């Protein structure tokens, strides 16, 4: 080799090594019919007091009649079925449509999407056979590979890349790839996928929060902070980015930085009472209990009524000896009593109908066995609970509907009949070390079990919170998906009938 060529070759190598991989992505435009549907649903929801499946179904069917080949509309309809816990009806609805349209790739995919477990993959395969360029056929196949036992991650990634070649504008493709790469600690490719998601939806916060999360996992806290602050400056009224900045700073024990955004959250958050109470906790972390009590008092004056949290949470111990604390507790008890009376008055109407409906939805499914570790490191197995009624609540610390329902679940635990065991099964938690501080913060004493992806699949968990009521013989009798304002009374009725 000529000696004068060596510097040129080195320069070319350095340039190629330094060249960043460009995302495969285009701007996403929501289909017009989907935008129109969502507008109609929001308008209807704003003026109705009672949400009925049949009323919403008529709206969806109106748009599907005008757009019968819109896969996005059908996906929304399937989500409607799930939202009203009508999974069996969904399966039958799409089975019939697929039977009527056997050469349609779309209906093969939609029927597969309505199914669960291994039964879905043959329909996704059929969709691809009918149309190899049908985007959602490959998208469904990727999901099947991910949820298989054991999962075939490499095959899922290959299918998602086929999706990108067909249509690189769908945000969830990039998000799924980012999740897979992040789970593999492949931060470079995770950031590449997150950048793609940002191109598809440049004005949205989700890609920014995703990039910040990946950078945090990577250990680049400064990079995560830059992403979040950049969005916060451009969006002065955006509360979620401020919430994520608070979390970032509190994890790093940068309490003064967290305090700045806690004050902003009092002005921006939907729940200003909760935001005021959380501001008090940050003052405690700064070693300022007097300021903390001031803001606790303000929260209680605004209606804060979480007695358990105020009196049981270890994080609030230092304010309980201060002058004025007892007065705050007295006011809180008044709030709590008023809250209970309001709830009881609201529940009087329709109580017999609710009870009849709660007891009518009886199942007959053998509960999958498990042996799980609790917070104290002891193993709890379903087999050891034979002869008792068991309630399982699948949840995670990041799940907002789970958090909203927890006070009601604790009320059920406080009054549950003898012979009933209640367990909160933590699943889909990236960092289980968050669980104990989470419980301490809210003063909760749930009996925690740590589940895993395999258990979630065995119980066919598609979203959380999901609760199961299991009888003394180990048979699932009742299942509840999502938040319910009547969870405590429903569980009381159902467990009593099984004793």
Describe this structure in words.
With 499 residues, this protein is α+β, with helices and mostly antiparallel strands. It folds into 3 domains: 32-201, Serine Threonine Protein Phosphatase 5, Tetratricopeptide repeat, CATH 1.25.40; 271-340; 358-498, Glutaredoxin (3-Layer(aba) Sandwich). It has helices at 6-18, 32-47, 53-66, 71-83, 87-100, 105-114, 121-130, 135-147, 153-166, 171-183, 187-200, 206-218, 221-234, 239-251, 255-268, 272-285, 289-301, 307-312, 325-348, 351-360, 400-415, 435-442, 453-458, 487-498, and strands at residues 365-366, 371-374, 379-381, 389-395, 420-426, 448-450, 466-470, 475-481. The protein has an 8-stranded mixed β-sheet with strand order 1-8-7-4-5-6-2-3, covered by helices on one side. It is globular and about 75 Å long. The model is unreliable at 1-19 (pLDDT under 50).
Largest sheet report: 8 strands, mixed
CATH architecture of the largest domain: Alpha Horseshoe
Shape: globular
Q: What proportion of the residues is helical, as a percent range? A: 55-70%
- Biggest sheet, spatial arrangement of strands: 1-8-7-4-5-6-2-3
Q: What's the total count of β strands?
A: 8
Coarse structural class: alpha+beta
Strand proportion, as a percent range, falls in 5-15%
- Counting DSSP H or I runs of 4 or more residues, the number of helices is 24
CATH class call of the largest domain: Mainly Alpha
How far apart the termini lie comes to 87 Å
Let me know the CATH homologous superfamily of the largest domain. Answer: Tetratricopeptide repeat domain
- Which stretches are low in confidence, meaning pLDDT under 50 for 5 or more residues running? 1-19
Could you name the CATH topology of the largest domain? Serine Threonine Protein Phosphatase 5, Tetratricopeptide repeat
Rg is 26 Å
Average pLDDT taken over every residue: 92
**Domain module count:** 3
